[in-house]
Specification:
By secondary structure, the protein is of the alpha/beta class. It has three domains: about 210 residues, Aldehyde Dehydrogenase, Chain A, domain 1 (3-Layer(aba) Sandwich); about 190 residues, Aldehyde Dehydrogenase, Chain A, domain 2 (3-Layer(aba) Sandwich); about 40 residues, no CATH class. Strands 14-17-18-13-12-19-20 form a seven-stranded mixed beta sheet, with helices on both faces. It has a six-stranded mixed beta sheet with strand order 9-8-7-10-11-22, sandwiched between helices. The radius of gyration is 29 Å and the shape is globular. GO terms for molecular function: aldehyde dehydrogenase (NAD+) activity. InterPro entries: Ald_DH/histidinol_DH, Ald_DH_C, Ald_DH_CS_GLU, Ald_DH_N, Aldehyde_DH_dom, Aldehyde_DH_NAD(P). This is aldehyde dehydrogenase (NAD(+)). Belongs to the aldehyde dehydrogenase family.
């Protein structure tokens, strides 16, 4: 047979948790389960219909089947297995992974190191494919893809490899007189089976950075990439299957139905990156099983700009953190600026000059600006701009191209506090500027809102720096720059309050996916009868002295002296 045409109705995810279909730009398909049935063939794919949770595809296999392949017809039960990923599929997956974890494989130093090395090789071997997937999902510039996704993921792997032996070593702890003689330590042990639900805006970094920590800590992992960035999701599924140990690390692609099936299971820890609405759903599902969670959410991250700053450097760093980070589609991107009424015109002129320097006179034609991820988010941002009380406040930008999902960097001045744009996370290229009489008045505005994921201050005043750090609560804080605190593995990354629960990065990632087990060692010698019945006034006097930390009192009580308190 030279040509075979197969019509199949499928869900994008199947019981083995490996992606059924993996698309790349040239229209080729790599389907592991189909390969198992038809042999290792390339197949062109034509979608017959598209649905959020189901697809109908036609495969035209353009190679002659061997007699061995022809002797393996596609069985009905095999096709049914590929049709959907449901709660039973999720339970089966967890059972398999728990078997792997119970074997002790993932706990060994050698296994952890090998997986991290394999991940680095995976990135090096597929850098071009990673950039192409990010371009397809977000039109993300290659420079930005490398700097903010590829290099940071590799840095996390390399840092973990360098420090892992030290991280795994038990930490010595002090002992108390009540357990003398003894020794104590804190042992880091993996939680077990970890679920990581990642976000669409940095779909490579935010998927793999937590996986690095989970593997370094010795866990088995299920990664659920975001369906909103489908090219990267599909690529991740293929790459992790090809490079990592599939008996311990799996990818489940999907949307609401698949995520729901996963959340119905009992996990040992869950990390979710996304918005607060879904974060509450994740936390509620985890609470049914008393599963601990890390929630990396977001919020409205403020930038306070004093009038005594270097304007060009400050404007450049604000613009890079806002529009140079996925065109504002970043959880730590500046959400709004607060500055004085007197300094606002100067700051706006500085930002305008930098924006033209960065993206040219027509930013919609710039190759260095990401597009909006999809039409739903484009409409959401357009709604923020088109609100009656906001539309007249635009002082720069505002251009849009709905066909290409492009919105130009946009600056707004003095939008009302009760406007939509000031009451939800913007997550896009719109930047309102709020003015106050004195820069110190900005503190009250920030504190009147939910605690943000990040807070930024530009000033040359050490006094104002100190007051900002002491009075403003945020997940992270940066003075005289934006977003780059994310790159420091010695700092935890996470929110507070509605901007998130828990943190990770570097050693904090290892700790996030490790249970800190307290271990006390004692010998069978030196047993003190004072702790055992029958209880006597003399024993109580000795224990009082010991627990009060009085060695002399304990000695006196032993020889029959000392103060006699009410027994």
């Amino acid at each position: 047979m030279d040509i075979s045409l197969i019509h199949i109705n499928i869900m994008p995810y199947h019981a083995s948790s490996l992606p059924l279909v993996k698309l790349v730009n040239n229209g080729k398909v790599c389907a592991p389960r189909i390969r198992n049935l038809l042999g290792d063939r390339e197949a062109s794919i034509t979608p017959k219909q598209t649905h959020p949770t189901s697809l109908r595809f036609s495969w035209r296999i353009s190679s002659s089947f061997s007699s061995a392949t022809e002797s393996r017809p596609i069985m009905e039960d095999e096709m049914k297995k590929m049709e959907r990923f449901d709660s039973d599929s999720a339970a089966s997956l967890l059972k398999e992974l728990r078997g792997t974890f119970a074997s002790g494989k993932t706990k060994s130093y050698e296994w952890r190191v090998q997986q991290l090395k394999n991940m680095i090789k995976m990135i090096d071997d597929n850098e071009r494919a990673i950039m192409e997937a990010l371009q397809q999902d977000l039109a993300k510039p290659r420079f930005e893809s490398f700097v903010s996704e590829i290099s940071l993921t590799k840095a996390a792997c390399n840092h973990a490899l360098k420090e892992l032996k030290h991280w795994m070593k038990p930490e010595k702890a002090k002992t108390a007189i009540t357990t003398f003689p003894s020794s104590a330590e804190i042992v880091s042990e993996p939680f077990g089976i970890v679920l990581i639900i990642s976000a669409w805006n940095y779909p490579f970094l935010l998927s793999l950075d937590p996986v690095v920590g989970a593997i370094a800590a010795g866990n088995s992992v299920v990664l659920k990439p975001s369906e909103i960035s489908p090219a990267t999701s599909s690529l991740l599924a293929k790459l992790l299957e090809d490079y990592l140990d599939s008996s311990a690390v799996r990818v489940v692609e999907g949307a609401v139905a698949e995520t729901t099936a996963l959340l119905e299971q009992k996990w040992d820890k869950i990390l979710y990156t996304g918005n607060g609405k879904v974060g509450r759903i994740v936390m509620a599902a985890a609470a049914k099983h008393l599963t601990p969670v890390i929630l990396e959410l977001g919020g409205k991250s403020p930038v306070v700009v004093d009038s005594n700053v270097n304007l060009k450097v400050s404007a450049r760093r604000i613009a890079a953190g806002k529009w140079g980070c996925n065109n504002g589609q970043a959880c730590i991107a500046p959400d709004y600026i607060i500055t004085t009424k007197a300094y606002a015109p100067t700051l706006i002129d500085g930002l305008k000059n930098i924006l033209e320097e960065f993206f040219g006179k027509d930013p919609l034609e710039s190759k260095d600006l990401s597009r909006i991820v999809n039409s739903n988010h484009f409409s959401r941002l357009a709604k923020l701009l088109d609100e009656d009380k906001v539309s007249g406040k635009i002082v720069h930008g505002g251009q849009r191209d709905e066909t290409r999902l492009m919105i130009a960097p946009t600056i707004l001045l003095d939008v009302p506090e009760d406007s939509l744009i000031m009451n939800e996370e913007i997550f896009g290229p719109l930047l309102p500027i709020i003015t106050v009489d004195k820069v110190e008045d900005s503190f009250d505005i920030i504190k009147s809102r939910s605690k943000p994921l990040a807070a930024y201050l530009f000033t040359s005043s050490k006094k104002l720096e100190k007051e900002f750090v002491e009075n403003i609560s945020a997940g992270g804080m940066l003075i005289n720059d934006t977003v780059v605190h994310l790159t420091n593995p010695s700092l935890p990354f996470g929110g507070v309050g509605e901007s998130g629960i828990g943190s990770y990065h570097g050693k904090f990632s290892f700790d996030a996916f490790s249970h800190k087990k307290a271990v006390l060692y004692r010998s069978l010698y030196g047993d003190a009868p004072v702790r055992y019945p029958p209880y006597t006034p003399g024993k109580l006097r000795i224990l009082r002295a010991i627990l009060d930390g009085s060695i002399i009192g304990a000695i006196l009580a032993l020889i029959g002296f000392g103060k006699k308190k009410l027994e």
